[in-house]
Model the fold of this input.
Amino acid sequence: MYATVRRYKNAGALVEAMNAKTGEVKELISGIPGFVGYYATREGDSMTSISIYNDKAGCDESTRRAGEWVRANAKSMPGAPDVSSGEVFLNFSK
Done:
């Protein structure tokens, strides 16, 4: 399993767009082969998304698609996200 974390600053317009088009975002991200889960958090004007896939290819594709979606849908662009990806080596859930 692999995870990608994208951190955006000045993301108010992005959060607004994602809230307005939640179904579209869900379809975009969950439609990638190997999808496991997606989470988005907000603190002030920053947003973090976590995408989890069965393999690295899914994570890479989610970053590509997310970038396209942000460019097409956010009224004002946040800065380029800080992106980190890697193999999940511990996983706890209830």
Notes: The mean pLDDT is 93. Residues 31 and 62 are 10 Å apart (CA to CA). The chain has one domain: 2-87. The chain has three helices and four strands.
